[in-house]
């Protein structure tokens, strides 16, 4: 399956690049938490942020709507700006996002094969995943023949060659 990473797929990633969008004033914590829960998505925080972004756009980017819903207006405007930049870059380079049918995913950057961390709270396999970080936990990655051909593999091979040349094995 292949998906275009344009508009909707790029939106959650933009929130990783801007300040927290939820405002939680000390004296109004309960009301702020209740507002946040209205945006909550069963599939996790990134889709919760996507719900916030969609509501923001549906309300014509209204600063008063943000204030009433304990949302940081500037964060959403920044996220929208980053999303537009990402969409332009992806259009320029004709980037596509592909997932495999084997329970694994391929990263956009270097087609590295990855999968969900065992501690994930997800109870199903989503069509696509946005990673905050990649953690190497699988022993098969220590065998370089199993590692997919990508820039990360080439860098690891250079490091291994240097280590072997210095006799640190």
TrEMBL record:
The protein's Enzyme Commission number: 3.6.4.13
Keywords associated with the record: ATP-binding, Helicase, Hydrolase, mRNA processing, mRNA splicing, Nucleotide-binding
Domain DEAD-box helicase OB fold: 97-138
InterPro entries, alphabetized: DEAD-box_helicase_OB_fold
Domain of life assignment: Eukaryota
Matching Pfam families: OB_NTP_bind (PF07717)
Enzyme class: hydrolase
Catalyzed reaction equations: ATP + H2O = ADP + phosphate + H(+)
Protein name: RNA helicase
């Amino acid at each position: 399956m292949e998906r275009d990473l344009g508009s909707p797929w790029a939106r959650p990633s933009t929130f990783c690049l801007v300040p927290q969008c939820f405002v939680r004033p000390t004296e109004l914590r309960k009301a702020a938490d209740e507002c946040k829960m209205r945006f909550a998505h069963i599939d996790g925080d990134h889709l919760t942020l996507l719900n916030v972004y969609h509501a923001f756009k549906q309300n014509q980017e209204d600063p008063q709507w943000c204030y009433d819903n304990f949302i940081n207006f500037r964060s959403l405007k920044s996220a929208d700006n980053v999303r537009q930049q990402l969409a332009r870059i992806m259009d320029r380079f004709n980037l596509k996002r592909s997932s495999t049918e084997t329970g694994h995913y391929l990263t956009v950057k270097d087609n590295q094969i990855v999968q969900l961390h065992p501690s994930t709270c997800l109870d199903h396999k989503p069509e696509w995943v946005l990673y905050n970080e990649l953690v190497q936990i699988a022993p098969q990655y220590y065998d370089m023949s199993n590692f997919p051909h990508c820039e990360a593999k080439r860098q690891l091979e250079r490091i291994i060659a240097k280590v072997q040349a210095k006799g640190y094995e």
